[in-house]
Structure prediction request, 68 residues.
Amino acid sequence: MLGGGRMKFELEIITEGKVKDAITECEGKHIQQIAYSSYHDAFTQICFNCKKIRTSLKEKELCLEQNK
Ligand SMILES: [Zn+2]
Prediction:
């Protein structure tokens, strides 16, 4: 199923442990990208199959409040 370039990702702000659990869970089954920010000491996983962005970045680091 193709999204026609309009694939929507859900953002999950969770603990680093949970991001790592998700990485292990998706490994070998899903197409995923993992990014590590040494500045924030945070992991971010983007899984194209789960259509989720899981990150241990804090909400304030993402500046999400400013968009609300
Ligand atoms: Zn996945």
User: Anything to note?
Assistant: The longest helix spans residues 16-26.
